[in-house]
Each structure stands twice: as C-alpha cells, then as structure tokens.
Amino acid sequence: AQEDLLLAAAYVYDAQYNRNIPFETSPQAVRLYYLYNHWTMQAATYFFIFVDLFLAVFEDPAVYPLPFLATSLVEVLCLLVFFSRLVHFAKVTPRNVFWKDTKNICIMIAILVTLIDLIIYGALKISNINSIRWSRFLRPIFLINFAESRQIRRVFRSIRNTLPEITYVFLLFMFSVLMFSLMALKLFGDRNLRTVEGSPYFTNYLEIVFDLYVLVTTANSPDVMMPAFDFSWWYSLFFITYVVINTYLFMSVFLAVVYNNYRKHLKNEIRKLAYMKRHKMIEAFNILKVKEGTEYVVQEAQWKELVKLVAPDISTSHRELLLRVSDEEQKGYVDKKSFVRLADLLNIQVIAMRIQTHPLEHWIPHVYNSAVSLFIRSMVQHKGFVWTYDVIILINAVFIALDEENPLISYAEWVFLSLYILEILLKVYTYEPRAFFAKTQFWNWFDTSIIIAALIATILNTSLKSASQYNSQQVLDIVFILRVLRLIRIVDSIQRFRVIMNTLINIVPTMLTFGGLALVVYYMFAIIGMELFQGKIQFFPRNSTAHHALECGNPALKDSLFARAKYCKNNFNDITSSFVVLMELTVVNQWHDILSAAKLYFIAFHIVVVIMIINILIAFILEAFFVEY
Amino acid sequence: AQEDLLLAAAYVYDAQYNRNIPFETSPQAVRLYYLYNHWTMQAATYFFIFVDLFLAVFEDPAVYPLPFLATSLVEVLCLLVFFSRLVHFAKVTPRNVFWKDTKNICIMIAILVTLIDLIIYGALKISNINSIRWSRFLRPIFLINFAESRQIRRVFRSIRNTLPEITYVFLLFMFSVLMFSLMALKLFGDRNLRTVEGSPYFTNYLEIVFDLYVLVTTANSPDVMMPAFDFSWWYSLFFITYVVINTYLFMSVFLAVVYNNYRKHLKNEIRKLAYMKRHKMIEAFNILKVKEGTEYVVQEAQWKELVKLVAPDISTSHRELLLRVSDEEQKGYVDKKSFVRLADLLNIQVIAMRIQTHPLEHWIPHVYNSAVSLFIRSMVQHKGFVWTYDVIILINAVFIALDEENPLISYAEWVFLSLYILEILLKVYTYEPRAFFAKTQFWNWFDTSIIIAALIATILNTSLKSASQYNSQQVLDIVFILRVLRLIRIVDSIQRFRVIMNTLINIVPTMLTFGGLALVVYYMFAIIGMELFQGKIQFFPRNSTAHHALECGNPALKDSLFARAKYCKNNFNDITSSFVVLMELTVVNQWHDILSAAKLYFIAFHIVVVIMIINILIAFILEAFFVEY
Ligand code: NA
Fold first, then answer.
1. Which of B401, B404, B625 sits opposite A182 (nearest CB)?
2. Which residues surround ligand 1, an ion (CB under 5 A)?
3. Pairing state between β A295-299 and A333-335
4. Tell me: the pLDDT tens digits for B525-559?
5. How far is the CA of B215 from the centre of ligand 1 (A)?
6. ipTM
7. Does residue A550 sit in the same domain as residue A583?
C-alpha cells in the first residue's frame, strides 16, 4: 500500500508541476524517479550545466587563463555528471520511450562529440599543434535538453512552428530588398557619386544589397542616403519608401507573425497541459480507488497520507481545509471529480491571515501600550510618515548628486542611512514583523535588504579607508549603486506607479525563460564568433605606444570608421567581450562598422536574434502585459 | 412623398457609410445636406486643404519661392473655401449642435488666427520688417476637423484616450532614466574618462540624462559605452542592464499600452457605429412606414424608389436580388427587421459571375475557334506559360543589372518589352477581357499599367535621345523604376507569397489613415522646426569653395561629427528638407548628431512620433494582420 501511495503521489506531483515524464511503475523505478526529481539532483544538474558553460571564461581565448588540463578535467567531470543523469533517467523511463526521445539522443551525441573534440584537441596540443575547440558551441544543448528546462524547450518548439511562416515573409522581404537594390543600382550607379569616405557610391550590386539590408535596421541612416540626397532631394523619396516598406511594414509583419504564432502555440500548450494534468490525476485515482456503494472513491485516510507525501510542508489546518473542499459533504471519502482537482488545489497559495499580536505586546504589554508607544505607533501609521520619508528620499537624491569629496556630504550619507534604518525599525515596531516580512511584501524586503547591504558596504568602505587609506573602487561602486537603488522606493508611494511596477515584477518569471533562451543563442554565437575572429582586433589602453595601437593592432583598420570611433575593445578575444559585442549587434547600431569584415555572421545574427528572438521577447511582454494589466 | 423619400434616403446613405452628421429635416436642409455630401464638394474641400498645406513649398523659406502676394492670395482663397464650407455645414446642422461641436470652433479659430497672422505679417512686410508666419503649423487642423476626415479624428481620439496611461508609464520610464543617470554620474563622474572627441565623460548630470535618453533609442550605441567599457568590462553590465530595461522592456510596455488601448477603443467605436447605423435605419423606416395588418412595413414600391435614390448605379437585377432577400416571402412589403438590414446589404459587393463568351467568339467565331486559335488558347492556359514567363522575368532581372551602355543590352530591353506586351495580348485573347480587367484582378491591372507606362517612357526616352541627343534623367529614372517594378510579378506566381502580398495590400486603407495622421504631425513639427532652425545650417555642393563650406556655413560646427559626416543637407531650410530630417529623426539613428543643438525639440519629437505614432502604426499593422492573415 505504501508503494501504491508513492506511485500515486508521483502522479499527483507531476500533475501539480506540469511535468510530463513517462516513468516505469515498478516500486524500484518509482523510488528512483523520486530521487531523479529531488531538488538537490536538479540543482546539481543545473550547477554543472552552468559550470560547463562558464568554462569558456577560462579556456583559450580566456578572460582568466587556466591550463588546458584543468579546464578539460572539469569538462570531463561535467560530461560524467550529464551522462550519469542520463543513465538515471534511462532507469526511470521505459526503454522504448527513452530511445525515441530526441532530447536524450541530443545529449548523448553532444557528450560523445565533446569527448572526441577534447581528445583530438588534447592530442594535438601535446604535439604542439594549435587547433580549435569546435564542439564548444554545443554546450547550450545541455541547458536546453535536460528535463528541467521545459519552458525554454517550449519556446524553441514555438520558434520551430513559426519558422515556415517566418521563412515565407523573410523571402518576400529579401525579394523586396533585392528589388530596391536593383533600382538603386540603376538610379545611382552611373552618377559618379562618392560616399563620405570617398569610395564610389552604389556601384556594386552585392554591396548595395548589404547597405540596404543594414538600412532596414536603420543603423546606417542617414549616411547611406546622404550622397543621393545631396545630389537631388527627390532621391530621398527612394529611401523613405524603402524604410517605410522594409523597416516599418516588414518588421511589423515579422512581429505580427511571431506574436500570432506565439499566442496560437500558447493556447495549444495550455490545452495539452490541462489534458495531461487530468490524465495523471486519473492515474493516481485509479491506484488508490476503492468501491464505495456504486462509485469508486478514495478513502479519507488514504487521501491524507497522499497529501502528506505530496506536500509534506503544509500545515495540518491547511490540509484539513483541502479535505473540506474535496469532501464537502463530509462523507469520509473523496470522489473522482474532487480528487482530480487536488493538483490545482495544491497550487493555490493559502495565506494565513490571522491578525497576530505584536511579539512586543506579548512580552512587554505595559511598555508597548504606553502613551508614548501608542503615539509612535499612530505616527508611523499616519500618511504623513510616508510623505516625510518621500521628502527625505528627494533630498537624499540631491545629496547623492553632489560632490562626494565634500566632508559635509559624506557625513550626510550617515544621517540618511540612520534615517532609513530608523524607518525600518519603527515599522517593525509598529507592524507585526511576520506580516511585515511576508513573502508577498516585495517592497519591504527590497527596502530592508538594500538598506542593510548599504550599511554593510558603507561600514566596509569607511573602515577600509581609515585603516589602510585604500579606497576600494569595487566596494565604493556597490555603495553608489545601492544608494541610488534606495531611491526607487519613492515609486511605491504613488498608486498608479505601483500598479505598473507590479505588472513589471510579475513579468519577471517569463523574462527568466527568455533569459535562458537568449543565453543559449548568445552563447552559440559568442563561441562561433570567438573561433572565427579572435585576435583580429586588439585593445590597447589610451596613450599606448604599441605598434598599430591606433588601428586596434590591425593595419587593415587604418583610417577605418571602426578605429576612428575607438571601438577596439569591441572584439571577440574572450567570452565576455563577445557577449558585449553581441549585445551591441542586438541593438543594431553601428553594427556595420563593428563587424564590417563579417557580413554573413552578422546577417545570420540579425535574422536569428533581432527578427526572431527580440520579436519573441516583445510578444512575451505584450501577452504578459495584456494578462496582467 | 418625394421629400420623405429624400430624407429617408439621406438616413440610409449615412447608415451605409457610417456618417454621423445630425442634420435638419426640413426639405430645404435635406437638399443642402445632399449638396454638402456630394463628392465634388468633398473633393473640392480636400483639394483646397492640400493646396493650403502645399503653400509651405512656396512660402519663405521656400523650395520654389513665390512672392508673398501670390501665396497670401491663395491662402485667403483657401480660407474663404473653408469658411463657406463651414457656413454650408451650419445651414445643414441644427444650430445648437453646430455651436457645441469643437470641430467647428477649431476651424473658425484657425481661420481667424490665420487671417490675423496674415495681416500682421503683410503689414510688417510692407514696413520691411521680417517676422514669422507663426500660424502656419495650425494648417493641419483643417485636415483633421473637416467632416470627411473621420478616420484621422478617430485615431486622435484614440491617442487622447491612451494619454493618461502612457503618461504614467512615461513618468516611470523617465524616473528610471534619471536613476540610471544618477548611478552613471556616481560611477563614472570621478574617473577622468574622456569621450572619443576628448571631452569629459559623464561629468554633467543633465548631459548624462540626455545621453542615456538617446541610448534608449540605441542611436549612440556603442559610443556612449566605450569609455567606461575600455576602463573595465564590468561597466558594460551597467549599459546592458540599462538597454534591457529601458529600450526593450519599457519600449515594449509602451507598445503594449498603445496596442491595448487601440483594441479597446476600436471595439467601442465599432459598437457605437453599429448602434448609430441601426438608429438611422429605424429613422428612415419610421418616415416611410405604413400600417399593414398589425405591423408597420414599407411598401415594395416605396422601397424600390428608396434604393434607386440611395444606390443609383446598381443594376436592376441586383436591386431585384436585394428585394428578394428583404422580402423573402414575397408579401409585397418589407418589414422593419429586414429594412434595417438594408444598409449592410448595400455594402455587399455582388460580383456578376456570368460566364461571358469572349467578344471575339461573338464576332469571328470561325477564326477564334480554329485549330490554331484553340492551340494558342490552351497554350496560354497551360501552367508552362506562367513558368516560361517567370524564367523570362529572371533573365530580365539579370539584364537590368548589366551595363546600360552596351547596345546589345539596350536592344534586349525592347525584346523583353515586346515579350511582356505579347503576354498581355495573349491573355486578353484567351480570357474574357471584362473578367481579366475586373476590379478584383489587382495583378492584371498592375502588370498592364506598368508595361504600358514602361512602353511610353521607353519610347519617349528613345525619341528624346535620337532627336536631340538629350538624355532626360527624369524619364530615364522612371524607365528604370518601371523596369524593376515589372519584376514584382514573379511574386504572384507563388501561392504563399500571394497570400502575404494580399494581406499587405489589404492593409493599405488602414495605412492611408495612418498616412494622414503622420502628415498632420510631421507638418506641424516641420513648420515649427523651420521657424526655429532655418538658415542655421547651409548645404554647399561638393568641391564648393564658399566660406565655411566644410562646416555647413556655420563656424560653430567646425570639427563636429555633423560636419564630418557631411550631414549639411539635413537642415530645416525648406519644407522638403524638414520632412526628410523628420524622417531621419523617426528612425532614430544619429539623431543626436543631426540635431545636437535642439535637444528639447528632439525629445518632444521622439515622444510624439516614436513612442506614440510609430506604436500606433505597429498596432494598426498587428491588428490588420491578425484579422487578415
Ligand atoms: Na539605430
């Protein structure tokens, strides 16, 4: 019976968290399944996934170089963890399901390929031949394909479904770009016009195509138009028509296609999830059911045991409440219909809203209810208290902007810090501390942690300064940031702002999924970019006297816009620089200058990130906003 | 009875075209109302509105200068037309309605203000004092407020409704920008960093705010980040966080708010329109109703007279069809329920799909049905015919890209032109011409007009060339454009492209409304920009030896990015240049360089056009696409 209960609890648990892993029902497999889903195992998997991704910081070309032996040992360790996780999964899930699942095949191939690459690279390194760790861009596959990353996989599925439609629109869009380029060639090619740099203007078809593609992102506007516009203002109409059609119309159509598909896909997913949830709850019911009169039911005792297993940390009163809802007529058993609802019931947060007395009132009632104390408490609860602190925040903002070197200002900082600490103490004195620091009180948590962190950082900074005359820039930076963050509080005082802020905060979980997706794509592009372009461009500090320092160490960049704008640090020489460059390419400004040598890499990045990923982000936000606001 | 019919027809007509003008019901007023709505009167009003707007081309600072006397006389004429149109409207509509309508008050004030401005300007001009025609930015008021521009007014209403919500989000956004600026000041202000131009980096709070505001539009990325990034790559995190929050998150929230409001507003408008339509049809019914047994009805004869009045150009068979639908049981009268539906019935396009015989078959059946003719016709209907011409188009594209000077290429153009003409002739020979050129056959119309225009332009160009050795650049440009446009046809051969193209074509009417809106906003900003900035920057042709030619005639611009990028023609010296500059500001690239002296004008333009108007455009397209696709 205990084994039946465990199996049923596994089904309920899966239903509650929308998990869709088919598992063997033998007692041993169920126990292994519990282990597989234990949070420590999941956390460990994620930890090693991120260690694996993070290796790029230490591998050649490295931010912080480590010997190949060290990084390769860590990588092998990661692969071992992934492999054992996979073996564990294979023990849990039926054999035929396991081998049919592309996720598992992907992981196995990725492990194998990485091992082969490691061996080849190591062997070549021993023979002093430098090669490329070409398999590294596969690492995000582990992030996508381990069972915990359901949300990210869902987005990838959504992208795959959007692909055919997007492709047709994209082809039409490219057709339009090619047509306009042909027109540009005919209109401007024979005019002997020159660009600002003095090169011939619009004479080569492929270059025109690239220039006009860049114009879609508006990155080279108005430069690309100026020679023609200088020649005759009529020609500006050509470019305006181009921008209206290709930037505004087509880019909006891309958004429309992605958003439309996202909504459609989301609806399907939700329908499927609801079906799966119901299916699993019925499975659990069928395990525990007994016949009671004409219908099958689950006995109250069994039901309670099940709930204890599924949700061990809920209170007895909460469990009784759930039973009341599930067995409304108190018949001593739960019928099928009520049982199926259990997964949803468990997901409802029950907030115990008992009006608790303040601990101080409990310990020292005389003092806490004295006239002075009552006055303080009513003062804190008064609206004027909030307003006073709003004014203090505003004055604080002015002081922050003033010069730090002035001793009066740096003294004032202590005053403000004391005032904020006093505020928190007063509030905790007045309001019940457990209510004040409840999970839902985001702003109280925010305030308190910012103030405490600022207090610690400021003390640390002052003691460092007085002890060793050493002004740690890092600590000081953190102090500054915390100081400014403190000001955000003022937003919370205005009802309308609070509504918008709450909407934004509620978007965060969706944004995290998006962050995972962005990480995958960025990582792949960053690794490929590093392998292709590392060392091509070098950064030299200001006033460096190194050879070719002004041309970013590359004679080919002499007099280029890139070198003139001092973009030398925009390179692919390590993983952090690569990420920064990719971020710059994402906002598509000056990207044609940043990567002028790598047009194809570029266009690929633009199609994947700006046309697909950013539109998915906007679709995310639009949908989340419509639901929340 | 005829007067009753006219009144009822006016109601039906208004219901059919969703017109909401309350009019007096006296016979004379109804007749005036008909005149008011006559298309010639409406066309005349629009004509004078556009003449009035177009005056900016000829007024100082002019593209084509005309004496003040000429432009002011035309303007007075326009104002007279507007005034008489208003008087006409006052005769039609009840007096109290007229004076309550802000539209009319707006027009009157605009007329008055313009007259005063004209008189003052003229008087000063006579005394040789140069002043400003400050009332000119009011001109779009006539475009907005005349009764025909319902759609544009609807969008403006929608903007007004969105304003409160947008304002709160905008304030929060500005708060975020101010916070980040404060952080930037603390983090980078004391570092002695320098920008590329050598000026101090992030030391002045207001300048930081502006720089970071520009970064929201991504226009100064990555330049604004480079000094901090060069100092330490950690600081790139500051800018990445900034861009994610302010560019991606907030800009998407703006879109969400605008789009959400647009949808809500649209729903309300549609509901209101449906109510008004029904209301008007009931008014019409009440005028014509007679008692038939227990219910009120409209007699068949009356009904037919009414339809003849409302839709004079529909065929008798079409009218009979409408009667059949409205009087299904052929009782000789139309009841209230059926009568109310008439407005919608009239809007349904009935396409007479009779399979007509080809006129040639009628005239010369022997020839048309001969073996050769049948062979030709089956050939044209064959799929291979389309494919052949697709191949011809592709070859043509290659020829267009090749050098024009080669006589063989220019001879080939004649071959292609003949081939296209042959194709159209063959199609008209095979398919029934009236069906081929039906209203719905967009592509046939497109092809034929492009080919005929290209034929005319090419002949014109060749004869000009052979007659006078003069190669008219304008004609040649048109020939080139037409030649490339011809290639668009290939899109029509592929089913999936055709679907997308049709969606895009169906968006056109919505885009026209948007074009009106954009015209209003651009015109106002252009006029204000011209008054503020005219003459500040001058354009000199390449190799000009004029004084300060390299600094756009303005010594203050020496060594500026603006002058170095040769942006001199981006000025407000006339209306066309102003429009081009505003277009460049709309795509927000290099805008901080283009208008560095006029930061406030700029931010205002960005808020109005990019945050409001462009988001409305995207909302338009999204909604249209969801409905169509
Ligand atoms: Na840009």
1. B401
2. A 218, 589; B 218, 589
3. antiparallel
4. 999 988 888 888 888 877 777 777 777 888 877 77
5. 9
6. 0.87
7. yes
Count of domains observed in chain B: 4
Report the residue of B206, B488, B542, B590 to disrupt the A interface, i.e. the one with the largest count of A CBs within 10 Å.
B590
Q: Report whether pLDDT(B325) > 80.
A: yes
User: Confidence class of residue B470 from pLDDT cuts 50, 70 and 90?
Assistant: low
Indicate if A481 and A527 belong to the same structural domain: no
| pLDDT tier, B140 (very low <50, low <70, confident <90, very high otherwise) | very high
Report d(CA A476, CA A459) in Å as an integer.
11
Any domain includes A200: no
Range of the domain at A341: 289-347
Assess whether pLDDT exceeds 80 at residue B440. no
Find residues 147-176 of chain A whose CB sits inside 8 Å of chain B: 168-169, 171-172, 175
- B404: pLDDT strictly greater than 90: no
Q: How far is the CA of A589 from the centre of ligand 1 (A)?
A: 4
Residues of chain A with pLDDT under 50: none
pLDDT of residue A123: 92
Residue B113 has pLDDT above 90, yes or no: yes
CATH number for the domain that contains residue B530: 1.10.287
The reported pLDDT for the residue numbered B25 is 87
Using alpha carbons, select from B179, B106, B183 the residue that is nearest to residue B147: B106
Note whether B183 contacts A590, CB cutoff 8 Å: no
CA distance A137 to A130: 18
The domain that holds A441 is classified in CATH as 1.20.120.350
| Residue B352: predicted pLDDT | 56
Distances (CA, A) of B494 to A179, B429, B446, B451, B488: 17, 24, 17, 21, 12
Cβ of B480 within 8 Å of Cβ of A187? The answer is yes
Considering the domain architecture, whether residues B595 and B528 belong to the same structural domain is answered as yes
Whether A414 and A527 share a structural domain? no
Q: Cα-Cα-Cα-Cα dihedral of B207, B210, B212, B215, to 10°?
A: -130
pLDDT in tens, B349-375: 666 555 677 888 888 888 888 899 989
Tell me the range of A55-59, A413-417, B192-196, B315-319 where mean pLDDT is highest.
A55-59
Q: Identify the pLDDT of residue A470.
A: 60
- Alpha-helical runs (H) found in B289-335: 300-310, 316-326
Do B481 and B584 share a domain, yes or no? no
Q: Are B429 and B520 part of one and the same domain?
A: no
A489 and A563 co-located in one domain: no
- Does A611 fall in a domain? yes
Q: Provide the pLDDT for residue A353.
A: 55
Q: Tell whether B182 is covered by a domain.
A: no
Rounded to 5, what percent of chain A is helix, strand, coil?
75, 0, 25
Q: Which of B222, B477, B500 sits opposite A584 (nearest CB)?
A: B222
Which CATH number do you get for residue A561? 1.10.287.70
Choose one of B113, B130, B146: the last residue of a domain: B146
Cis previous bond, A61, omega within 30: yes
Task: Return the residue matching tokens 């326009």.
Answer: B78
Question: Sign of torsion, CA A31 A32 A34 A40?
Answer: positive
Q: Which residues of B touch A229 (CB under 8 A)?
A: 569, 580
Q: Are residues B462 and B576 in the same domain?
A: no
Interchain contact, B589 vs A487, CB within 8 Å: no
Locate all alpha helices (DSSP H) within A233-333, ordered by sequence. Answer: 236-242, 251-288, 300-310, 316-326
Last-in-domain residue among B146, B162, B193: B146
Kind and range of the H or E run holding B299: strand B295-299
Look at residue B156 and tell me if it is in a domain.
no
